[in-house]
Design goal:
Helix content is about 30%, strand content about 30%. The protein contains 12 helices and 18 strands. Helix 2 runs parallel beside helix 3. The structure holds adenosine monophosphate. The site of adenosine monophosphate has 13 residues, from strand 15.
């Protein structure tokens, strides 16, 4: 059985690594022939919307999935009509536009920050007037890892924000004064089996995930998050892994965004859960029984961004697992991560502090 993955980034690479024990083979579509997936599978060279490349990928495999969100939905409709394509294109489409995504959340009664579409300077004035300052102006499409965002604190910021981002459709959101950010990762198989991982608590800087700890235990928040995830599963008749990122404010979850794919905040599941998010995504899209999402300790995951230490300097720390994606270092690029799994939350937190304070950073 062959799986096709649109995008050969680190997520695709980790999907393939999880799929090999099941006897699967992997083919990727990616513009870059030395993307991380090339280490573990064949790459068909082409853009994500290249009809020839997409058709070649579909011909070469039994099931198609993706590791990136910016795959144009129109480009994949043709292959999705002929080949099993999961998660469903509709979920991919909703996740690509922050306005559509938040409108859907609202329809499914999943709480969001206040928001309003902005297509002109006047719209921005009106949105900031209604929702108030501070706020965040974001591009509706193609924003990720903090790109395409402008935080507005005072009225004087309105013009700069508009001049910086105003060339494309935008959304204005009220600023959420959150106490923490968490994400839920769940999985639904083509047979309708559902499993959810425990919440992870995530720390971002400049819009990029820096580190996560899991399980983040809060029975109330876990219940809310699983309920919201299940509404989305049902809405899309979903199969595969789905992630929702939330702000926590006064014991309530406020949804920031969803990702219809495996997620950086779930990398801890490789060593820290009975079955990883990557393994479960593959099982889900093939209709295989899902594996247990039970955590097997207390995990922390730290991203290596822009630069990556040597394997030797990380592996000398007892109990740490090191992952390098084999990418060329570039500012703000995710190059690898490491995970620690400890017997207690206190031991995990201590090890995380040591990792973050390393002198070779
Ligand atoms: P995003 O690209 O929407 O995932 O945003 C990246 C990060 O910016 C989030 O993880 C938050 O730390 C911050 N952020 C985004 N939107 C808001 C908001 N409405 N209120 C407060 N912080 C936000």
């Amino acid at each position: 059985m062959k799986i096709g993955i649109i995008g050969a980034g680190q997520l695709g690479r980790m999907l393939a690594l999880a799929g090999y024990p099941l006897g699967l083979r992997f083919v990727f579509l990616d513009q870059s022939e030395d993307a991380p997936g090339a280490q573990v599978g064949r790459i068909i060279a082409g853009a994500f919307d290249d009809p020839k490349g997409l058709a070649e990928l579909a011909r070469a495999v039994d099931v198609v999935t993706f590791d990136v969100e910016n795959v144009p939905v129109d480009a994949i409709r043709e292959i999705a009509a002929k080949k099993t394509f999961l998660p469903p294109p509709a979920a991919l489409g909703a996740s690509q536009d922050r306005l559509d995504e938040k409108t859907l959340f609202r329809k499914l009664r999943i709480p969001t920050p206040e928001f309003q579409a902005v297509d002109s300077r006047e719209d921005l004035l009106a949105a900031a007037g209604r929702i108030g300052l501070p706020g965040v102006l974001k591009t509706r499409r193609l924003g990720y890892d903090g790109r395409g965002q402008y935080f507005l604190r005072q009225r004087a910021d309105l013009d700069i924000a508009w001049d910086t981002l105003g060339k494309v459709p935008l959304i204005y959101e009220g600023f959420v004064d959150f106490s923490r950010e968490v994400s839920i990762i769940g999985v639904r198989s083509t047979r309708g089996e559902v499993a959810c991982y425990p919440l992870s608590a995530n720390t971002h800087a400049a819009g990029i995930l820096r580190h996560s700890i899991a399980p983040y235990r809060s029975a109330g928040l876990q219940r809310q998050a699983e309920g919201y995830l299940k509404r989305l599963f049902k809405h899309f008749d979903y199969a595969g892994v789905l992630t929702i990122e939330f702000f926590v404010k006064r014991g309530r979850l406020i949804a920031n965004e969803m990702a219809p794919r495996v997620h950086n905040s779930g990398h801890w599941t490789i060593e820290g859960a009975a079955t990883s998010q990557f393994d479960n995504h593959i099982r889900a899209i093939l209709g295989l029984p899902l594996g247990s999402t039970r955590p097997i300790g207390h995990s922390a995951m730290v991203n290596f961004i822009g630069e990556i230490p040597s394997a030797a300097s990380i592996l000398k720390i007892p109990g740490v697992h090191f992952h390098s994606y084999g990418k060329e270092p570039r500012p703000n690029r995710k190059l690898g991560h490491c995970t620690i799994v400890s017997g207690s939350a206190a031991a995990r937190d201590k090890a995380l502090r040591q990792l973050l304070q390393r002198r070779d950073r």
